[in-house]
Amino acid sequence: MQTYLVLLHESTEATRPDLSPEEMQALIARYKAWGQRLHASGRLLGSNKLEDGTGRVLRAEGDQLRITDGPFTETKEVLGGYYLFQAENFEEAAEFCKDSPHLDRGVVEIRRIEII
To answer: Could you tell me the CA-to-CA distances from 88 to 45, 67, 116 in Å, in that order?
Structure first.
């Protein structure tokens, strides 16, 4: 069994969709149902939505460390959240993700965790 990190990317234009309160609640319910399905599989190790509007980017500049707000200040895409779960292979991981509600408004990236 391998461990996979699923990253939920969205464009900055999609981060604040023009949804009514009822539509937003329906979308949240879809995310919760999808997460509960992953949890019920017994393979979900963790998941969280990342806080909007926060983050820091660290860059080495010679012997100095530069810390900037970000990554939202420097990119047109943001990372909205993640899921960490186990699957036999990429195909099975993709199968878990194929009905993610996030695919309606963004990109789902699957990365295998390399144990070093």
So the answer is: 14, 38, 19
Sign of the dihedral defined by the CA atoms of residues 16, 17, 20, 22, in that order: negative
Strand partners, 84: 5, 46
Alpha helices by DSSP H, 1-116: 21-40, 90-97
The Cα–Cα gap between 23 and 31 comes to 13
Does this model's pTM top 0.70?
yes
pLDDT (tens digit per residue) in 10-40: 765 555 567 788 988 998 899 899 989 989 9
Measured between alpha carbons, how far is 87 from 94 in angstroms, rounded to an integer? 9
Q: What is the DSSP letter of 52?
A: T
